[in-house]
Amino acid sequence: MHFPENVRIVEVGVRDGLQNEPTPVDTATKLALIRKLSESGLRHIEAASFVSPKWVPQMADHREIMQALAIEGEKSVTTYSALTPNLKGLEAALECGVREVAVFGAASESFSQRNINCSIAESLARFAPVMERALEAGVRVRGYVSCVMGCPYEGEISPLQVAAVARELSDMGCYEVSLGDTIGTGTPLKAKRLLEAVTREVSVERLAAHFHDTYGQALTNLYTVMEEGIAVIDSSVAGLGGCPYAKGASGNVATEDVIYLLEGLGIDSGVNLAQLARTGDWISRQLGRANGSKVGQALMAKY
Ligand SMILES: CC(C)(COP(=O)([O-])OP(=O)([O-])OC[C@H]1O[C@@H](n2cnc3c(N)ncnc32)[C@H](O)[C@@H]1OP(=O)([O-])[O-])[C@@H](O)C(=O)NCCC(=O)NCCSC(=O)C[C@@](C)(O)CC(=O)[O-]
């Protein structure tokens, strides 16, 4: 077994998590959460989404969030990134001083239509000028591919289709492509086959795993892909979230659960698990929802 020595966590709870909360979460609570996550040692936090507030009202305060974080400027040890689906979103994000953005595509035509109102080909054509403008402004761009192990509308998705979209994003200039198991239907065998196909097009060092835990398989799938060389994991504190365009999808794998797994494997992530567990407990209370992290629940029962 060959696991990576270090794993970088991309904390997506504030964006992927909160975008799906039924009740509005105020900007001050989001900023307090972001600070606590950063203090626990997380060094990459996806903090906002410059999408249409009509489509995703929970992300309507993207400007306030990113402006508040930009005040930290170059001194910040934490990267705060934001989703930008088009040039309009990117320009707004640049005005707020972002240093990193992400474009998000899908391996499923139906999901692409429901999520961003265009086909896969149209989305890639839209991302090209976003990429060009971002790189010109010295801003790094990450890419997402949704539905890599299943689609809520089409069911099975071919790993070859995922590989083709990942390759396009990578060739366009994304420094990293994150593979989203949007509805959490992946299993270890599917994850292995997925990576076999995708790594023929994009090297494993430039891939990240973004697994939702709807079917309780996310940790097992992460273990499998780490064996194949994946060293970047997207996760969500307290397992917050879901996707507004994937009915029934539960949150991302909980960051606390991932850190516990990594510690058990002797892999360094730089995150203080006890502090993170307190943050997961805090935000769950703020939202009046159950803590979606098993590790978080277990640790908080002891504290
Ligand atoms: C992409 C659009 C905007 C296209 O939406 P559209 O309707 O096709 O766009 P449009 O260009 O025709 O514009 C329509 C309206 O939206 C406005 N608009 C246009 N662009 C923006 C923008 N950037 N920011 C703010 N407003 C914008 C624009 O100004 C206009 O406003 P109106 O004239 O009607 O008042 C829309 O479909 C959208 O916002 N979708 C949101 C999708 C989303 O946020 N999904 C969740 C995130 S993806 C995800 O969770 C998956 C991931 C990444 O986590 C990985 C995984 O788990 O799989």
UniProtKB/TrEMBL annotation:
**Gene3D superfamilies the UniProt entry points to:** Aldolase class I
CDD domains, sorted = DRE_TIM_HMGL
Q: Which reaction does it catalyse?
A: (3S)-3-hydroxy-3-methylglutaryl-CoA = acetoacetate + acetyl-CoA
Q: Which UniProt keywords apply?
A: Lyase, Metal-binding
As recorded in UniProt, its EC number(s) are: 4.1.3.4
Describe which pathway this protein belongs to, using the record's wording: Metabolic intermediate metabolism; (S)-3-hydroxy-3-methylglutaryl-CoA degradation; acetoacetate from (S)-3-hydroxy-3-methylglutaryl-CoA: step 1/1
Name all Pyruvate carboxyltransferase domain ranges.
Answer: 7-277
Fetch the Pfam families from UniProt.
HMGL-like (PF00682)
Q: What is this protein called?
A: hydroxymethylglutaryl-CoA lyase
